[in-house]
Amino acid sequence: MLSAMARRSLPVALTTATLVLASLVGCAPQNQPAPGPPQASCTKAELKTRTPGKLTIATDDPAYAPWFTDNLPGNGKGFESAVAYEVAQQLGYARIDVQWVRVKFDTAIAPGPKEFDFDINQFSITDERKQAVDFTSPYYLSRQAVVARKGSKITGKSRLADLQGAKLGAQVGTTSYQAITDVIKPTVKPQVYNTNDDAKKALQNGQLDGIVVDLPTAFYITSAELKDATIVGQLPQVGLPETFGLLLDKGSPLTGCVSGAVDALRANGTLGNLEKTWLSEVAGVPDIT
């Protein structure tokens, strides 16, 4: 599995910023990737899927928690599995009409025909990637999280006030560092590092009480990199967060309809409820307020 950091690009392009701002106010984003020939309709009977009457959805193998559960994308458990089935239902597909395929991350974002209708695999939306593939509007806006070693003085804390006396660090020039200065507002000067790897080393060495990274990176750090680390909690939204979108073939005739389904799920609160369930309650990551 690629590291969470390898999957993401720090620069936030202007078109991506537009997507974020639009989704934050609950409106359909205006700058969508240009779809292929328009669908006559977004009804199941009219959708030009790879297999008529079926919706083929891809993800990686293995598929990790909390995005999926037990490496079984078809069980509907985990944030991205749940999102995929909600999108399918919005498009008129019952669960029995959904078929899953496994596609490696790098293969999915590469130019060329796809063997799926859409792929869901924590793809951050970037202008560079949009040269090769289509994206829907965002189904997830990444929040910042505090990571500490187990037994740290901030482990188990759930109030911003409890973090203000902690020694915290983050990568320079990131939303993570902005979250420390603008949201936590510590009384101890925060430490700045050239990379997240440097910040992690400082945490391991006991030089910091905690580091701030985006939540997907926090999940990866605590599950695959630092076994004695834990996620203290999620911080309130700040800055322009990274956004995840469903990935489709470049010029896919489905892009507009699938993006419209994501917009509807955002507007009716489904995406927010799924995020709360799978990325907070089930994952055991509380909100820090």
Automatic annotation (TrEMBL):
Gene3D superfamilies linked to this entry: Periplasmic binding protein-like II (3.40.190.10)
SMART domains: PBPb (SM00062)
Annotated signal peptide: 1-28
Domain Solute-binding protein family 3/N-terminal: 54-282
Alphabetical UniProt keywords: Signal
InterPro entries: Solute-binding_3/MltF_N (IPR001638)
Superkingdom of the organism of origin: Bacteria
PANTHER family referenced in this protein's UniProt entry, alphabetically: AMINO-ACID-BINDING PROTEIN YXEM-RELATED, MEMBRANE-BOUND LYTIC MUREIN TRANSGLYCOSYLASE F
Protein name as annotated: Amino acid ABC transporter substrate-binding protein
